[in-house]
Amino acid sequence: MLILLNLLFCVFLLCRYGIWPFTFFTKMGVDGPRPFPFVGTMPYYIRSLNFSFECSKKYGDVWGQFEGRSPLLMVTDPDMLKVILVKECYSTFTNRSTFAKELFGPLKDGLTLVEDDRWKRIRSTISPSFTSGRLRQVFPIVERYADRLVKTLDTEKPDQSVDVKKFVSPYCLDVITSASFSIDSDTTVNPDGPLSVQLRNLLKMKIWPFFVIIALPIAQYFFRLIGFSIVNKASVDYFQNLLKSFKHDHKEDKSRHSDFLQLMIDSEINESDIKDGVEPSKGLTEPEILSQALIFIFGGYDITSATLSYILYNLALNPDAQQTLQQKIDVHFPKHSPVSYEDLVNLEYLDNVISESMRLLPTAPRIDRMCKKTIQINGLTIPEGTAVGVPLTNLHRDPRFWTSPELFKPERFSKDHGEDIHPYAYMPFGLGPRNCVGMRFAVMVMKMVLVRLLQDHYVETCKDTVVPLEFNMLFQPKEPIKLMLSRREL
Ligand code: HEM
């Protein structure tokens, strides 16, 4: 009997633990969907990826949801976003809300995850890598690899559909490894070389531990104890050794390199330079250099190729926009003439196409910040420790800010004849001091390959194209995006 009572008491405690934080938003006076024990509001996402839209409709610009037991305040009010992402970024919303950072292995020192003064130091050290002067320096590399990629189409069989992400990703990898380390990984020609195989392994992160931690946060101490990491250890070791050897080469011969790694090596500091947690204003330690290099590869390879595949998909679905773009490309860049950095930057319609595609299909569907001290915004008190989420998909399709938001209309971004774009309703690269540091690089890389590709080819949907796209819980397409790349009759 005593055992049974003890058992019932344990079950009672466990149930209380599972629902304990769920009064958080009621106390704040914020409405939201009803959470389930342990898993919070996550089952709603599994049921429908339109969950955020449904919440916006029902609760307005602010609502509360739970990632497991952790509260997440969702905000789509532009005035509040201005405060959260820009005005109070340094004082209150400096960091992201990522938890269980140790699970990220060496990536935990990357700019995306580091916090406060350490973030400021690393950000100000690597930002100069992406000035227009630097981008001009890497521009010839980008052009070379774009040409190389388009040439591979000569050997493709006509009338065969292409998995577009798979098609563009070797180009993205070649560009980022060359711009970062001055090496020619040549994955465009040799897609199954060791570098791309290891990178693919690195990108296959385990996500189940997050679900375990979301339901049972205590599990993270166990994972830490056994040194568990969500990234593939063998691939991490491979990259760390590779980067160390690049670093050695760069140190031996500085004159040869003007790449991102050289800039980081030039600012190398020792761990001992960070005394009692007091951060110098600039500089990177060796583990930090390796982490940033890996983060660059992530951004430059996976996210850029996913974004490019969405742009090609939108162009295939909207042949009029594609034709207008091709006409502009033909005028600005006659075939076989070299493309200059300035001309590429100034091709406005190409910018409009990229912006519109990233509005409809933002590669990162949500950004977030952690509130590090209690603050009142628009009459709402947000307690210290509250994670704030911004669903970009909602903002980008909100009829308050966009006319016919479901349509692909690049012209809406035209400087002279476009719509008034609300500055806090559009943020495919995030917003404020913590936005994407690689944005200008990514846009240049995407523009270059689009010009080279559309000079000679057009993209079309085919029987293998899934319309509309269907996404999994991680907001990645369930099926690869398949399109036809056909030669243009000029
Ligand atoms: C089309 C491609 C890309 C997209 C859509 C993209 C999108 C984003 C977004 C949405 C964020 C979060 C911003 C925020 O929280 O406000 C971000 C952060 C970041 N991105 Fe990108 N990104 C891309 C390419 C790149 C590239 C090529 C690099 C590096 C070479 C890069 C490096 C980073 C870094 C380091 C951060 C963290 C910045 C910080 O915390 O200070 N990204 N990116």
From TrEMBL:
SUPFAM superfamilies: Cytochrome P450 (SSF48264). It holds the Pfam family p450. InterPro entries: Cyt_P450 (IPR001128), Cyt_P450_CS (IPR017972), Cyt_P450_E_grp-I (IPR002401), Cyt_P450_sf (IPR036396), Cytochrome_P450_3A (IPR050705). Heme binds at residue 436. Keywords: Heme, Iron, Metal-binding, Monooxygenase, Oxidoreductase. GO terms for cellular component: endoplasmic reticulum membrane. PROSITE patterns: CYTOCHROME_P450 (PS00086). Its cofactor is heme. One of its GO terms (molecular function) is steroid hydroxylase activity. It comes from the Eukaryota. Belongs to the cytochrome P450 family. This is Cytochrome P450 3A27-like. It comes from Gadus morhua (Atlantic cod).
